[in-house]
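Before the break, one more example. Copy the sequence into your notebook; we will annotate it together after we see the structure.
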Amino acid sequence: MRNTLIVFFILAGFSAVSADPLEIAENYLEFEWTVRDSNVISHYTNTGDPHRGYTNLRPCDWVDSIGVIITGMPYHYGGKDTFAQWQDDYESNNFGPGAHSWHWQSVAPNSTTWAAGIDCSGLVSYCWGITDVGNCNCDTLAERATLISAEQVQPGDAFIRTAYYDHTRLCYARLEDALEYQWVDVIEATAAPYNKVIKRQLTIEEQMDEDFYCYSNSDSTNSASVRSTNSRRRKAFPNPRWVKGGKSV
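Here is what the structure looks like once it is written out:
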């Protein structure tokens, strides 16, 4: 049955070219694509080796979402896809949507040769205008950035953890009605349970409790647009929009 499935991906037509880190993050967040069969299973391997493709134990995240329109580029461990690269990969059904650390190894074959998407450091790197994105990870982002205090955090800055389970997310907005707890909107490429680029609300305090530190892009010549801080804390974050058969559900 797996071999009879047919697939392609519909692209939203966003451009990755932007001077505004928040606009770049928005493009990855709002990017829409349709899950279709052959891309999901095209790199299934019956060897059971997750480094060579999706397996029964480590399947594609989207195998149960055939025909669903997803909002947010898929999470791919080690992924650094621009929108043009995504389009090239999927037009010929060569790549699957996203992969995880268990699909990765330092020598070929690895998931960069058969899966597409973006990871946390790839997203922040593009937002910060870094040219050598392929060589960036959470450690190198922290090394090139400027450590700042929680009070100094502005939209376009990042929260980075390098102590264990490296991760980074972009600050999208600060909420002025929640200064006591320092609530912020963040955009991040994250794995389970979302497996894509999402937006959600967190406090700076809880992030620092989890060993995240606050960083400003010291090399950037672009200033992030200051977003209105009149937004209020919402209960619906993250709020991925799932669409089945073209209708919201």
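The CA atoms of residues 40 and 57 lie 15 Å apart. The first strand starts at residue 32 and ends at 34. Try to locate both features in your own notes.
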